[in-house]
Design a protein that fits this description.
Number of helices: 15
Order of helices and strands: HHHHHHHHHHHHHHH
Structural class: mainly alpha
C-alpha cells in the first residue's frame, strides 16, 4: 500500500473502513447461520481451524527464520491468550448473537476499551491523574460509557423500526405471546456479551506483555488460532459426545461460507490489515473506528435481517460511543504530552557512533569487541 505523509496518508482510513465493513458482514452472516441451526461451539472450532491454516504459512515464511524457540513461559502466555482472546471471547460473542440482536452486540462491544482502561487502572499499569484535564476526560468517558451500557441492558423503550413487531419494554427482551423464555434468552445473551468484553479487556493486558516477550505478530496469532482450536474442540467433543461426528458435519452451503469467511477474512485477513494500521497510525487511531461497525451493523440489522431497533439501543449507543471518544481523546492528549523517549535513545546512539568514529583504529576495535 502506498505511503504518503502522516503515517500512510489516507490508506489507513480506507483500510479501517474496509475492516469495519468486514466485521459487520461477519456479524450478520453469523447471526443468520446460527438462526439456521449452526452451533456456536462448532462455529468457533471450525473458524479457528480455518484461521490457523490461513495464518500458519504466512507466519512461517515471514518469521520462521527469525523467531526463537518456544519456551515454557511463552507457551503459557500463548495458551492463556488463546483462551481469553479467541476461544472464550468468540464463543461468548456468538452466544450473544444467537440470543440477542446484532445491533445490541456491537453496541455493547464498545464497552471493551473502557473495561480495559478500568483494569489497567486497577492493576496500576495506567495512572488516572484526576487533577489534570486528560485524567478527568478519561474518568468522565469511562462513567458515560458505563452509563450507556446500563441503558443498553436495562432499558429498551419504544420500537423505532418494525413497530408492529414489538411493544414497549423496559427490561430484558420482548416476550411475544407463546414465547415466555425470550426474556431469559435475552438476559443470557447480555451476560455473554458482557463476558466477551471482560475477556477482551483481560486479553488486551495479557497480550501487551506477550508482545514484549514474543514480538512476532504473525507467529503469535497463528499459534493462538491453533491453541484456541484445540481448546474449543476439546470442549465441543465433550459437550456433543452423545451426538458423535454428526454434530460437526456442516452441510449447508451458507453455513460453510460463513465459517470460511469468519476464519479467513474475519480472523486472517483482518488481522494482517489491522496490524498494518497499528504500525502506521497507532492503537488509538484503530480504536477510534470501533463504533463504525455498529453503524454498519445497525443498517444491515433492520434492512436485511429485519430486526427491531429500539429507543434504548439508540440512547445507549450514543452514550457508549460518546464516552469512548472522550476516553480516547484523553489518552491521545496524554500521549502527546509525554516526552519523545525514542528520539532521545536515537540521539544517544548517534553520539556513541560519532565518538567511535573519532577514536583511533585500535581503540575502535577494542570497543567493537566488547560484549
Amino acid at each position: 500500500m502506498g505511503g504518503g505523509s502522516g503515517g500512510g496518508g489516507v490508506w489507513p482510513v480506507v483500510v479501517m473502513v474496509f475492516l469495519n465493513a468486514i466485521a459487520a458482514v461477519m456479524v450478520s452472516l453469523v447471526k443468520v447461520a446460527m438462526n439456521g441451526g449452526l452451533d456456536p461451539l462448532v462455529l468457533v472450532t471450525l473458524q479457528q481451524l480455518t484461521a490457523a491454516i490461513f495464518l500458519g504459512p504466512i507466519a512461517y515464511f515471514r518469521e520462521g527464520k527469525a523467531r526463537p524457540k518456544m519456551t515454557l513461559e511463552i507457551f503459557a502466555y500463548l495458551f492463556a491468550s488463546a483462551a481469553l482472546g479467541a476461544a472464550l471471547r468468540q464463543y461468548m460473542i456468538f452466544v450473544a448473537l444467537r440470543y440477542t440482536t446484532a445491533t445490541f452486540v456491537t453496541a455493547f462491544s464498545n464497552v471493551a476499551p473502557v473495561l480495559t482502561f478500568l483494569l489497567a487502572a486497577a492493576t496500576r499499569s495506567e495512572s488516572l491523574k484526576l487533577r489534570t484535564a486528560t485524567g478527568a476526560a478519561k474518568l468522565a468517558g469511562t462513567l458515560v460509557s458505563l452509563a450507556g451500557a446500563m441503558v443498553l441492558t436495562f432499558y429498551r423503550g419504544v420500537p423505532l423500526t418494525h413497530a408492529h413487531r414489538g411493544q414497549l419494554h423496559y427490561f430484558a427482551a420482548p416476550s411475544p405471546a407463546g414465547d415466555p423464555g425470550a426474556g431469559k434468552r435475552w438476559t443470557l445473551g447480555t451476560v455473554a456479551i458482557l463476558g466477551n468484553c471482560v475477556c477482551l479487556s483481560c486479553w488486551f493486558l495479557l497480550h501487551g506483555r506477550l508482545a514484549r516477550k514474543y514480538p512476532y505478530v504473525y507467529s503469535c496469532n497463528a499459534f493462538m488460532s491453533t491453541f484456541s482450536f484445540l481448546q474449543v474442540a476439546a470442549v465441543g467433543l465433550c459437550a456433543h459426545r452423545s451426538l458423535g461426528l454428526a454434530a460437526w458435519l456442516v452441510t449447508s452451503k451458507f453455513q460453510i461460507l460463513t465459517i470460511l469467511y469468519a476464519g479467513v477474512v474475519g480472523c486472517g485477513v483482518s488481522f494482517v490489515l489491522l496490524t498494518w494500521c497499528i504500525e502506521k497510525r497507532g492503537p488509538v487511531f484503530v480504536a477510534a473506528f470501533i463504533p463504525v461497525v455498529q453503524i454498519i451493523v445497525s443498517v444491515m440489522d433492520f434492512t436485511v435481517l429485519h430486526e427491531t431497533l429500539y429507543l434504548g439501543s439508540v440512547l445507549g449507543s450514543v452514550l457508549v460511543i460518546g464516552g469512548l471518544y472522550l476516553l480516547l481523546w484523553g489518552k491521545r492528549q496524554e500521549a502527546l504530552q509525554q516526552p519523545p523517549k525514542v528520539a532521545e535513545d536515537d540521539t544517544e546512539q548517534q553520539q556513541q557512533q560519532v565518538q567511535q568514529q573519532q577514536q583511533p583504529p585500535q581503540q575502535q576495535v577494542q570497543v567493537q569487541m566488547q560484549p
